[in-house]
Amino acid sequence: MAGPSRSGKGTAKLRPPDTYERLTRAITEAHPGMSRGAQQIARYLLHNPNEVALASVKTIAGAAGVHSSGLVRFAQALGFAGFREMQRVFQTRLVTAAPGFAERVSALEDELGRHAAKTNLAFLRDLVIRDIAALRNLLETTQVDQLDKAIDLLAKAKRIYLVGQLRALPVASFLRYVLAMLRREVVLLDAAGGLATEQAKIIAPDCVLVAVSFRYYAAEVVGIVEGAARRRVPVIAITDGPLSPLAKSATVCFDVPEDEYAFSRSLAASMCLAQTLVIGLAHRLQPENGGQPIIPSAGGHPR
Predict the structure, then answer these.
(1) Cα Rg for the chain, rounded, in angstroms?
(2) CB neighbours of 92 closer than 8 A, spacing ≥ 6?
(3) Please, are residues 130 and 258 in contact by the beta-carbon 8 Å criterion?
(4) Of 51, 170, 40, 44, nearest to 105 (Cα)?
(5) pTM flag (> 0.90)
(6) Which of 67, 244, 252, 294 is deepest in the core (most CB within 10 A)?
(7) The pLDDT value given to residue 6
(8) Cβ contacts of residue 246 below 8 Å, gap of 6+?
């Protein structure tokens, strides 16, 4: 990430973002052209805004896995005099912001009691704590206009295409199951045989693509989303933040940041969001049920 010129004849001083929302937008827009180290800093800053507001430069650099001078250069590239000036934007946000993910996990651990023993039951406890924090975060950060727009796209679509690979596959598979029960025309783009990209080329603008991907993002899914966006296909993305490669191409983007736990990423919040979308769609399609959406099962009984 090359810093813009801050002085000199014939050059204009870059005006730094003065709010967290503008700073987030500036980082997101610059992210594709950043160096690998700068992208690493960007991910840490946007995924841990509360820690960035409160910690020292040395602590933040250590957590982000970079040298302190890298943080300074990152801030200067965005027009700030130094890192501490940029940090004040994070501190201003903290006055009114909801607790971050790490704070939620820490509070839950304190409430439920910490257990250092690494038993199988302790592993279960740790996962449950993180899932509770992720679900609370989902409830507090998801906007009603996002949900309304996504459900409207699903209701009007001639056909619904789904794509999700690697650890995101269970979410896409669940959506296929329930959408089929709602008698919607639905296609899960299958990676078997390397056909998903070819299947995606027939998606028309009167359809909708629902894409699910988390870090580390499946390259084929990213390519399918970018191709669909170029053809003006509406895209509903379920991903893990504004720096996700899916976010820039999405018509509606749901950010579901969850804690990385060893080699396994929890899908609790993502599955809950997927359930919300299909229940909202069922309600839209079956208004005669007095507000109680009925989703039929393969056996003929509501689920």
Answers:
(1) 21
(2) 19, 20
(3) yes
(4) 51
(5) no
(6) 244
(7) 40
(8) 211, 213, 217, 221, 222, 225, 235, 237, 239, 253
